[in-house]
Amino acid sequence: MEVKDKIIHTAEGLFLQYGIRSVTMDDIAKELGISKKTIYQYFNDKEEVVCVVTRDHLSLEKAEIESVVYGSENAIEVIQGISRCMRRNVQNMNPSLLFDLKKYHHKAYKIYEEWKQNDLVQLIEKTLKRGMEEGLFREDINPSVLAIARIEQTQMGMDPQVFPRGEFDLVDVQYQLFNLFMHGILSDKGRAVLSKYEKLFLEK
Q1: Is 57-201 CATH 3.40.50.150?
Q2: Backbone angles phi, psi at 137, to 5 degrees
């Protein structure tokens, strides 16, 4: 692994564990066993590190989600698979990470917002339309509205101010929200299919 890649990988691990604000360039250098000067040979400042880490992380997450979309039998399996990917990617994330990104790193947060709107929302909207064509989802739903609602619902389930980690189990919260969403959009045919995938939702 090249030095730049090691810096990115190490920074990502520290950000996920401790949040972004509390991690300094000194911390990254110390974790790698190199000088801070070496990091500055590859990055101008911490903001650039955060932007690169954000872009790389989201690129991998997009690839993971796309593999679910194009490798699933039907739209229900896709929605379940996307929800499981998102849960797996955030369950070990420091609760302050998105807050830090939004408040202190505007360029990186813009990267996240563009990914959410241009990639994730579109993928879910496309899946909802697919489910309608398959007869699994109700004919009267609005895919554009519900794609956004599903993303915001998932993010709400990860918000420690809404669901404190000491009081709520993250997996159960996401499972409850997933069921609420799915049962609101399913047709009679879809409800008959759902039980097969509800069990898979709890798998890692």
Answers
A1: no
A2: -115, 155
